[in-house]
Amino acid sequence: MRVRFILLLCLSAFFFSFLISYPVYSKEKSIKYLPRDESMDIVTTKNLGLTVNESTCPPLDSILKELDFCQNCVSWSSRCPPGCCLKKVNNKWVIQCTPEDNTKYKCNPAAFLVNSCSRVDCGQYKPDCAASPIAIPSCQRKGCPDPTINGQLNKNGYYDSSNLLPKFTGCDPNPDAPLSKWPGPYYTVTPVYGKPPISQFLGYNYGVTADFSKYIDDCHNYSDAYEQCVYDTYCCRKNLCNACDDPPSCANLVANPKCENYDTGVCSNLQSKVTDCLMAGVNGDCYSCFKEIETDPPLLYKFVARSREKIVVAWQVTASPVNPGDGTTYFYTQVKVFDDATGSPVHESFVTQKSLTGSFTIFSATALDKKIVDGKEVYLLEPGHAYTIKPYYFLPPVGQGLSVRIDQVQLIIMRIRE
């Protein structure tokens, strides 16, 4: 209520200022200007809850789609600067530090996972990216088996048991890695006897089997290759721009090579084409794109024009997007004035727009003043004619399934008769 009171007060002050600007004449002077009368009417809806969807607009369909694409390209480029995050390979953009850039950045799955094999945890290890080659901490290979025998040698230098196992048989490998835990056997076990004539039993001699030894080598090689790939990629990315931490944007740029042809200047020109078409009025191609804000009962203002009458129409729309966008799509409004006898529009306001990033309020105004007929200035509204004022909207069909919830619409009409 307070905002409405202030609004009415400001509008009244503005228009009544014309009255107090006239000079006061003495009785002997004649009055050269007729006095004016002014009035204000308000038509409003509250708690409307009206949901409107994307409008069809054939004249703008192709431009709007290109504009949406342009704005997406600019947004992706701001998050993934092509000159830093991307590079050309065989005349195509690829994301730097990825397998498409260089196969050395194609990392296989880790051999072991920290949550199931804590010994491979290297903490917050940061490699020296200036080194060549980049040193790795060799943490992953700690999950591989240790062939050291879990036993003590006897006085003869052999083992007394033939069933000894390695000190560490290895962690369970990552299911996504091409490794499986070694099931055994681990060793070849041979009894050892003294030289004749006294063939005394001295113990058991252990040797790592060839297959187990190969398994350990393969495990070490795979683990080290994984770490080398991870840290090579880390250092590669570290040398890129800080803005390269948005993989989806980079992927979108690579998938849409035509983005090379779009920048903020192109988007601005396309937006101007949209605005020019929407502002062209009844004789323009986009006249039918605007849809009436249909309420029950209908929100409109009917009146019969008086002689020498001007009208100022202010409109206010409070709304919110049902599915907020990224700021590249706008909601447009305007008011139209129709001659009831012919049904033809006699006046269209300019178009206002708001970005669909969150709840918003549109407040604007337009004046029905005079027009030029046969070189003469006459009042736009013809005395005795009935007119209707209606609010309109346009939600571009950009193919995102956008919709807007309109909560309140208000028309404020100031009638001024000179």
Q: What's the SSE pattern?
A: HEEHHEEEEEEHHHEEEEEEEEEEE
Number of helical stretches of at least 4 residues: 6
Beta content comes to 25-35%
In one word, what is the shape? Answer: rod-shaped
- Largest sheet geometry: 6 strands, antiparallel
- Radius of gyration over C-alpha positions, nearest whole angstrom: 40 Å
Distance between the termini: 31 Å
Characteristic terms for this protein:
23% helix, six-stranded antiparallel β-sheet, alpha+beta, five-stranded antiparallel β-sheet, 19 strands, single chain, rod-shaped, 29% strand, 6 helices, disordered N terminus, 418 residues
Describe the structure.
With 418 residues, the chain is α+β, with helices and mostly antiparallel strands. It contains six helices and 19 strands. It has helices spanning 2-20, 61-79, 82-85, 210-238, 247-255, 264-278; strands at 37-45, 50-53, 86-89, 92-95, 146-149, 166-168, 187-193, 201-208, 291-292, 301-304, 309-321, 330-339, 345-348, 352-355, 360-368, 370-373, 376-379, 386-394, 403-417. Strands 9, 10, 12, 13, 14 and 18 form a six-stranded antiparallel sheet that branches. A hairpin with a 2-residue loop joins strand 3 and strand 4. Helix 2 crosses helix 5 and helix 2 (61-79) runs antiparallel to helix 6. The two termini are 31 Å apart. The model is unreliable at 1-9 and 13-29 (pLDDT under 50).
Write the layout of secondary structure elements.
Blueprint: H1 2-20, E1 37-45, E2 50-53, H2 61-79, H3 82-85, E3 86-89, E4 92-95, E5 146-149, E6 166-168, E7 187-193, E8 201-208, H4 210-238, H5 247-255, H6 264-278, E9 291-292, E10 301-304, E11 309-321, E12 330-339, E13 345-348, E14 352-355, E15 360-368, E16 370-373, E17 376-379, E18 386-394, E19 403-417
Antiparallel strand pairs: 1-19, 2-19, 3-4, 5-6, 7-8, 9-18, 10-18, 11-15, 11-19, 12-13, 12-14, 12-18, 16-17
